[in-house]
Amino acid sequence: MQCLRNSVLKITHQPFRTISSAIPEIRIYEVGPRDGLQNESKFVPTDVKIELIHKLAAAGIKDIESASFVSPKWVKQMSDGSEVMKNLKRVPGVNYPVLIPNLKGYEAAKKCNIEEIAIFPAGSEGFSQKNLNCSLEEGLKRFKLVADQAVKDGIRVRGYISCVVGCPYDGPISPKTIAKITDELFSMGCYEVSLGDTIGVGTAGSVRKLMKEIVAVTTADKLALHFHDTYGQGLSNLLAGLEFGIKTVDSSISGLGGCPYARGASGNLATEDLVYFLYGLGVNTNIDLVKLVEAGRYISNFLAKPTESKVNRALGDRFKNRENIIKMAACTL
Question: Which pTM value belongs to this model?
């Protein structure tokens, strides 16, 4: 029994020492205005989307995925992408990437003074057919055309891979398959690849298996993690990823999100929960959680639904500055 206890302590305590000493800063890539809202049935007006983006920037978020240029036929919520990008007030030093499905979408986005795009192949055949209406191989060919043009135009390209752990149609996904797709995205010119657990079935164990394969083809500083919190595993999965040296994490304000092609998948890891979690690890985010909570409440109130962020609910109105929240997260208040 004592041997078992010692083994558990070794596993659970070592990562915290490694993370706090090796990762002084984590980059948070906010996906709420795009990935978070796209699954909402209530249409969010352009001015509300823009105000949400402004509030996120005011909280200190430096990367805010702001719009999508997919067909309105498939995702009506994103039909005003051009209006959003043309009318938001851009803050110097803040990145406002957009999601691009094909060359037609890219040409429309390019008219909006974009600096970064994201392309999004699937990690499985079944999800590629449902999400992109084509095979995995054909999807990669389409995205290569987009990436080639963007690189030629001097626009940064980020890659997403969906269903990196499990697929609602194909079941468990081989980490070797995801490693191969990751390698292909980098060969297209992507500066970073985000690994997405689209249906939230991952666990710390499956994430570790995935990461072992991925870091064989690239380095952790070129990767991001994108977790949905369907089974409440988002933060534990993140901790497993941080052990490998990950420095970028995708999250969504108020835990908004889901997937129209993955029934039962809940929202993304909430940005408020992520920031509080990192506060507790002593990791620098340069994000004001008080202002972030305000942004989460703003969009939740508009949608007339409770926030999915446990931290947002728990904090209430007790704190007026982030320093006190940092102290509480570190148990020093």
Answer: 0.91
